[in-house]
C-alpha cells in the first residue's frame, strides 16, 4: 500500500518538473516547444529554393523561403511576412488568402519542369531511334527490315532472284607489317569505303558487306531493277576513277580491281544476334572469281554481264577465256569507259 501511495506522488512530481521552463541562451523555452507533436509550430514545412556549393568553405548552402498558403498557416508556423520570398507573388497570395495557391504554384512549376525534361527526353529518344534505324538499314535493306518489324519471320525474307548483277572490289597495294602500318591501313580503307558508300546510293546499288579489303555490292535485289548490269558497270567505273583522284590521308598508293557477274541468287536474313542480309548461289562465287582474276585499275566482267549491257554504251575489249577455280574456262571482257562519260546519268 505504501508503494502504491508513492507512485502517484512520483508521477505528479515528474509532471511538475516537466512543466518547468528551460532556459537556453538566456531565453526561457517551454519543454513542450521542443516536442515535435506538441505544437503546430514544429510541423513539416515546405521550402522552395536552390542549393549552392561554396568552394571556399567546402560546403553547400540552401537558399530558400517557406511556401505558405494563408495567414493562419503563417502564424501556426511561427513565421512573419518578412520570412517569405520578397520576389514573386508569395506574399500577395498569402495576404489575399488564396488557399493552396502557393502550393499550386509550386506544383505547377514542378509540372512545367517535368514537361520540359520529358520533351528533351523525347527529342533524345527520336535522335537515338534515327541512329538505330540508320544502323539497322546499314545491315538490312529497308523493305526487309520493315517486314521484320511488322512481325514477319526471318525465314519469310528469303527470296530467289532470277537475274541480278554481283560485284566484288578489292583494295590492292596495301601492306601492314607494323602497328603504325595497320593504323594507316584502317584509315585508308575507311576513306575509300566511305566514298564507295556514297556512290552506291547514287547508282541505286545495294552494298552487301565489306570483309577485310573486299567490298561487295549487288544491283537487282532486294529491289528488282532491269538495269542492274548497267548500274553495276557505271558505279564500278566511277569507283576506279574516284580512287585515282582521292587524296589518301596516309599518302599510300591505292588501287582497286573489280569483277562482276550476273545470274540467279537467293537472299535472306541470316543471324539472330547480328542479323545480316546475305546472298547465296553460284553467281556470287563466280563474281568473286572474276575479281580475283582481275587486274589493278580494271573492271573484269563475264560474258553474261556483257550481254546485258546496252549496245554502243561502253568501251569493251575481250580478254579471251580465263580459267576460274572450280568453274573451268569462261569468256570474259574488260570494261574501259562509259562512252557517254556522264556520272550524273543513272538509270533507275
From TrEMBL:
SMART domains associated with the record: CYCc (SM00044)
Basic and acidic residues: compositionally biased ranges: 1-12
Gene3D superfamilies linked to this entry: 6.10.250.780, Haem NO binding associated domain, Nucleotide cyclase
InterPro entries from the UniProt entry: A/G_cyclase, HNOB_dom_associated, HNOB_dom_associated_sf, Nucleotide_cyclase
EC number of the protein: 4.6.1.2
Domain of life: Eukaryota
CDD domains: CHD
Pfam families with a match to the protein in the record: Guanylate_cyc, HNOBA
GO function terms (MF aspect): guanylate cyclase activity; nucleotide binding
Guanylate cyclase domain residues: 165-291
Chain segments carrying region Disordered: 1-20
Electron transport keyword on record: no
Enzyme class: lyase
Keywords of the record: cGMP biosynthesis, Lyase, Nucleotide-binding
Listed GO biological process terms: cGMP-mediated signaling; response to oxygen levels
GO cellular component: guanylate cyclase complex, soluble
Name this polypeptide is given: guanylate cyclase
Originating organism: Callosobruchus maculatus (Southern cowpea weevil)
Amino acid at each position: 500500500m505504501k508503494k502504491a501511495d508513492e507512485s502517484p506522488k512520483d508521477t505528479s512530481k515528474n509532471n511538475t518538473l516537466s512543466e518547468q521552463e528551460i532556459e537556453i541562451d538566456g531565453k526561457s523555452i517551454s519543454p513542450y516547444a521542443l516536442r515535435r507533436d506538441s505544437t503546430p509550430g514544429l510541423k513539416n514545412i515546405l521550402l522552395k529554393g536552390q542549393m549552392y556549393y561554396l568552394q571556399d568553405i567546402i560546403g553547400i548552402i540552401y537558399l530558400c523561403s517557406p511556401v505558405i498558403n494563408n495567414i493562419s498557416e503563417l502564424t501556426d508556423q511561427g513565421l512573419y511576412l518578412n520570412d517569405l520570398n520578397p520576389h514573386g507573388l508569395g506574399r500577395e497570395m498569402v495576404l489575399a488568402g488564396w488557399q493552396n495557391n502557393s502550393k499550386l504554384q509550386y506544383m505547377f512549376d514542378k509540372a512545367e519542369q517535368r514537361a520540359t525534361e520529358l520533351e528533351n527526353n523525347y527529342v533524345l529518344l527520336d535522335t537515338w531511334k534515327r541512329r538505330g534505324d540508320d544502323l539497322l538499314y546499314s545491315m538490312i535493306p529497308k523493305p526487309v527490315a520493315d517486314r521484320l518489324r511488322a512481325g514477319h519471320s526471318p525465314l519469310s525474307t528469303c527470296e530467289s532472284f532470277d537475274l541480278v548483277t554481283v560485284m566484288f572490289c578489292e583494295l590492292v597495294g596495301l601492306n601492314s607489317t607494323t602497328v603504325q602500318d595497320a593504323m594507316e591501313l584502317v584509315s585508308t580503307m575507311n576513306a575509300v569505303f566511305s566514298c564507295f558508300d556514297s556512290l552506291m546510293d547514287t547508282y541505286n546499288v545495294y552494298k552487301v558487306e565489306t570483309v577485310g579489303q573486299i567490298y561487295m555490292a549487288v544491283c537487282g535485289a532486294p529491289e528488282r531493277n532491269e538495269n542492274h548490269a548497267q548500274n553495276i558497270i557505271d558505279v564500278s567505273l566511277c569507283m576506279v576513277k574516284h580512287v585515282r583522284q582521292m587524296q589518301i590521308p596516309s599518302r599510300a598508293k591505292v588501287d582497286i580491281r573489280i569483277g562482276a557477274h550476273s545470274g540467279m541468287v537467293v537472299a535472306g536474313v541470316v543471324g539472330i544476334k547480328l542479323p545480316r542480309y546475305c546472298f547465296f548461289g553460284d553467281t556470287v562465287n563466280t563474281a568473286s572469281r572474276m575479281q580475283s582474276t582481275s587486274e589493278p585499275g580494271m573492271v573484269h566482267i563475264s560474258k553474261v554481264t556483257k550481254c546485258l549491257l546496252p549496245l554502243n554504251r561502253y568501251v569493251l575489249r575481250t580478254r579471251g577465256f580465263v580459267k576460274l577455280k572450280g568453274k573451268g574456262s569462261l569468256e570474259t571482257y574488260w570494261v574501259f569507259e562509259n562512252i557517254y562519260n556522264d556520272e550524273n546519268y543513272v538509270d533507275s
